[in-house]
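Field reference: "sequence" (input) and "structure" (output). Example, EGF-like domain-containing protein:
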Amino acid sequence: MDLPSLQDLHLTRNNIRHIREQAFGYLPSLSQMVLAGNPLNCDCSIFPFWSWLIERSSIATNAQCSNGTLITSLQSPALDICNPDNCHCFNGGKCVANGNELACDCIGQWTGAFCQESPCISHDCGFGNCYIEPVNGTAQCLCDDRHVNFCPGM
């Protein structure tokens, strides 16, 4: 939602724990954000909001973590682990906040800390192609349109 002329935003005691990325959208005139009495979780999920506030240092705010720490006083080095630019997932995996760190959320049959592992990596098909069986997720070899455990040379 665009609210180009909004200057003051008061959200006191709304039991807000998480603030989604882009929650406040485009607010070019915002000068004050009152968030007192909201127990914000200051794990990695706070990183987008923290970054947004740091980039807009002209906005006065009293936003605090549930432990009483001001969001704007959180230090960059402590949040570096939460920076999505520091998270590298392979094979279509996405970085997601997992408590106080980022983790890769893998798709398909990819696993491992960085979505780099597949049952096909350790499955020798000889001269065939490995694929993942969609029903049970096991590695199978495909040789000339039929499924076998190993494809000898042609």
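The helical segments are 47-55, 76-79.
The mean pLDDT is 85.
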